[in-house]
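Readers of this paper often ask what the protein records in our data store actually look like. The remainder of this section carries one protein's record, kept here as part of the documentation.

:::
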Amino acid sequence: METVNIKINGKDYAVEKGITVLEAARYAGIDIPTLCYLKDINEIGACRVCVVDVKGSHKLVTSCNTPVQPGMEVRTNTPRAREARRTNIELIMS
């Protein structure tokens, strides 16, 4: 099993290469809110609830279909990510 080193909320983790940010967060014991648990990313349709900040990225990324990259720094609980989740949940539920 090949691993990559990433940071999640400031802590270092060695995770399996090829997994998604959502899977890496779950491995680290971090719960990222999501409305879907589908494995096939083509079926997900980007519900945009499991959004996270990635250092250096200007856009929020969907953690359920974004693969981890070596050196990636993920922040799951920034104000920007929380607001996006809240807004998207409201849109989805309306």
User: Anything to note?
Assistant: The radius of gyration is 13 Å. The longest helix spans residues 79-93. The first strand starts at residue 3 and ends at 8.
